Amino acid sequence: DAGVTQSPTHLIKTRGQQVTLRCSPKSGHDTVSWYQQALGQGPQFIFQYYEEEERQRGNFPDRFSGHQFPNYSSELNVNALLLGDSALYLCASSLAGVHGELFFGEGSRLTVL
Amino acid sequence: AQKITQTQPGMFVQEKEAVTLDCTYDTSDQSYGLFWYKQPSSGEMIFLIYQGSYDEQNATEGRYSLNFQKARKSANLVISASQLGDSAMYFCAMSKTEAAGNKLTFGGGTRVLVKP
Hints:
The complex is a heterodimer. In chain A, about 0% of the residues lie in helices and about 50% in strands. Chain A has no helices and 11 strands. In chain A, strands 2, 4, 5, 6, 9, 10 and 11 form a 7-stranded mixed beta sheet that branches. Chain A has a 4-stranded antiparallel beta sheet with strand order 1-3-8-7, with no helix packed on it. Chain A is globular. Helices cover about 0% and strands about 50% of the residues of chain B. Chain B contains no helices and 12 strands. In chain B, the strands form 3 sheets. In chain B, strands 2, 5, 6, 10, 11 and 12 form a 6-stranded mixed beta sheet that branches. A 4-stranded antiparallel beta sheet of chain B has the order 3-9-8-7, with no helix packed on it. In chain B, a hairpin with a 6-residue loop joins strand 5 (about 35-40) and strand 6. Classes of the chains: A mainly beta, B mainly beta.
């Protein structure tokens, strides 16, 4: 039973570029959330997708956008990259209405030069 | 707004001993969930244990137990019989309701180093 998978694991971009990160949820899960974790800090909630719609959003600018596909996988897009966007981006999946567990992937580590 | 505070930035523990990681929270919600995650250097967030705000018994999962004191708004993690593989960052987090789909608010984490 595959857990949450994310790609790519590492990537390097330059300021002003755009990046797309991908996430496949754990089998049977239908909700995907994205988090940004800066070095030495706890993760910060970016947004959550359920039924292909953004359901909740954290305090992130519109440069951060996402999408959920019919198979429940998801993408996180960041436009006009800034140095401060360098972070570990974590995807978490869950089943709507079921409490207790959010499963995370291993993350995509983005470096912006 | 919800807030999680972890006051111990780092701590050492001797192998085979127990360790308690502190977590206090602040919320005006009546229904919420509390989580603990382990993050090794690889970066993955590994789920350890969950406590719902209406659960009367403290949660336990193997060597992990959650000491839930609702009146004090604390949710400390106890790791018994520490192992070298327990060396990692530990994060306390909470959600607004007991449903897993809601967003998590994380604390700043505690780094644990287990000494042989």
